[in-house]
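Priority: low. Protein: GTP-binding protein. Input follows.
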Amino acid sequence: MSGPIPVTILTGFLGAGKTTLLNALLKQPEMANTAVLINEFGEIGLDHLLVERLDGDTVLLNAGCLCCTIRGDLLTALDGVWDRMLVGQAVARVVVETTGLADPAPILHTLMADPRLARRFVLDGVVTLVDAATGMATLDTQPEALRQAAVADRIVLTKTDLVPPAQVAALQDRLAALNPVAPILAAIAGDVPAARLLDAGPYDTSAKAPAVATWIGAAAPHGHHHGHHHHHHDRNRHDSSIQALCLEFDEPLPWSGLAGWLEMLAMTRGASVLRVKGLLDLQGEDRPVVIHGVQHLFHPPIRLAAWPEGTPRRSRLVFILRQLEPDVVRNGLDAFLRAARDEAALGAG
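Result:
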C-alpha cells in the first residue's frame, strides 16, 4: 500500500442532495474501491446500489464500493475499513457522509489528532453541498451551514436548474465571500465529475500544478497582495462572524517565526481558526512546503517534490476565521516574522 488513504468528507444541509450526489459519484470509475461511511443507512437512499450485506454494519455496493455505518464513532468505522484491507479488500479512498446538522470540525479533528489514524488515512478534502433553492434561508438561520461552507475545499450547488439564475448568482456571491478559496461547482441531478471533487488535498507530492493551485485557492481573485483581505460589508450580519484572510509574501519566510506564531495562534485562538492553508517559500528550502491546520491542530508540514509549473515562487497563506479580526492575525504574524528576521540578523552579525 502506497501512503495513507485519502478521505473525502461530504457534508451539506438536510435535503441538499448528498444521497443523489453520492449515488452518481459511485457509478464513476474514479470511485472504484471506495469505502463509504454513512451516519445511518436509515436516512440514505443507497438501497438500489446495495448488493450484499456483509455484516450488520457493512454492505458491498455493486460499484465495487464498501459501505459501513458510523455508529457514533468514526474511529471505530475507519478501524473497520483498515481491518478489511488487511484481509485483502481493496480500498483506494474513503468517503465520509456526515449528517446534515453536523459541524465538520470534529471529523477533521478525529482524522488529524489520532496518531494511529493519521498514519493510515489523510484528509483529502471537505465537499459541502448547498441547495440552490433553500441555501440563502439555510445560511441565514443555521450557523452549522455557514461553518460547513466556510471550511469546504469544494462547494457543490445542487438544484440550480430549479432556481432563477439571479438567485443562483446571489448565493454564489455569498458563498464566495464566506470562502474565497473553494471552487463552486453546479450539480444538476448529482451530475459532477468525480475528478473535480477528489484529490482536493495537496498530498500528491508530485506537485501537479492544478491540484496544488486549486487547493490553495488560486481560484480566489488575484491581486490581493500581502495585507489585503476580503471584506464584504454589505453581506448578512450573520456571515460577518466568518472572514477569510489571504496573505501573500514575495520574500522567503523564516520557518521559526512562522511556526512560532502558528503555535501561538493555535494555543490562544484555536477555536476561532476554522482552517489554515499555506503553500510556503521558506528560507533555506528549495521545495515548496504545504501546511494545513484545522482549529488548534496542524498536519505535519509536507514538502512537495518541486514548485508546480506555472505557480509563482511565493508564499501564500489562507485563513478562514470565525469571530477573530483578520488584523489580529496579520499583525501577530508580522511581529513574529520581524522578530525571527532580527534574530537571524543578530546571529549573522
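Confidence is low (pLDDT under 50) at residues 219-235. The longest helix spans residues 326-348.
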